[in-house]
Design a protein that fits this description.
By secondary structure, the chain is mostly helical. The chain has eleven helices and two strands, in the order H-H-H-H-E-E-H-H-H-H-H-H-H.
Length: 298
């Protein structure tokens, strides 16, 4: 701990709340990545580019729809949907033709897709910065017993559990979730009973990419939207997926909590080296649990 700093319980609690807000975005993005990884067995390197595309689309759609409350919330749905359908087109016309090839081909395809998406965003939005202003209802903070929490962070804290519950319901209580789990374990057997495994993969890929776009849409009002924002999120998402357990959605939640909270507490305890804290936590976890915190699907 920095010797000149004496944290109070209030400031510590406030940083935890802020860290939970960051955890929400990390979980949404990494859950989509681990979902694709668990079912398709593809480390989707283009996931960060889809996240960036979601942020740019949210910016443009909000402006096109008038920039008000209706425009903002409509963009939170329409931007991820647009990302999902772009991903579906890439999967149906290109990726699906590579499923029988060696695994390296799939990995190289997602890398190529990331490069293409980066160039597409540069063509449409240029290389400059974009910013999306917070709605008046999300500006300012709530104060409670000395704690100050930004309104938008509180909104994110509400969205995160809804996404987690939605994923749990999809995976455990719907037919497509049960089929996807079966395809992840026994692809040949699932196909042998008459299920079109290729379209199952397409649906899972689409859902995972929808979550990437949703994460980008949610983060758009909180930071500059620019080229390169995909690089940091894809590194963080892969670390979270590895820490939580490859393909395990609840592991992604645990990994996001570790990453978000250590980053937030690092800012409080030692601001100059706050970026080190999440990566140090990842190293400690992997030393103790090399296979991840929860059971890997690989």
């Amino acid at each position: 701990m920095h010797p000149a700093f004496d944290p109070t319980l209030v400031s510590l609690s406030q940083q935890v709340l802020v860290g939970l807000g960051k955890t929400t975005t990390l979980f949404i993005v990494s859950s989509g990545l681990t979902l694709v990884l668990g079912v398709l067995r593809i480390p989707n390197i283009s996931h960060g580019s889809l996240y960036m595309l979601g942020a740019f689309l949210a910016y443009s759609l909000t402006r096109m729809l008038g920039g008000g409350t209706a425009g903002f919330f409509a963009s939170l749905l329409l931007a991820p949907l647009a990302v999902a359908f772009i991903a579906l087109a890439a999967e149906r016309f290109l990726l699906s033709r590579l499923y029988e090839r060696e695994h390296l081909m799939l990995l190289l395809f997602t890398f190529a897709l990331a490069l293409i998406l980066d160039d597409v965003t540069k063509i449409f939005w240029g290389s400059g910065f974009r910013s999306l202003q917070l709605l008046p209802m999300f500006q300012g903070s709530f104060s409670f017993s000395g704690l100050v929490l930004p309104r938008y962070s509180l909104f994110l804290l509400c969205v995160g559990p809804l996404v987690a519950l939605g994923l749990w319901f999809l995976i455990n209580r719907t037919k497509i979730g049960k089929i996807a789990r079966a395809a992840a374990v026994h692809r040949e057997m699932t196909g042998a009973v008459g299920i079109n495994v290729s379209w199952v993969f397409a649906g899972v890929f689409m859902i995972g990419c929808f979550l990437a776009g949703l994460g980008g849409s949610l983060v758009a009002p909180t930071q500059c939207i620019s080229q390169g924002m995909d690089a940091s999120i894809i590194i963080e998402a892969f670390l979270i997926v590895i820490v939580g357990g490859l393909g395990n959605v609840w592991g992604a939640l645990l990994g996001s909590l570790i990453f978000g909270l250590t980053n937030s507490l690092g800012v409080l305890l030692w601001p100059q080296f706050s970026i080190v804290f999440p990566y140090a936590a990842v190293i400690v976890v992997l030393l103790l649990r090399p296979a991840g915190l929860l059971r890997s699907t690989w």
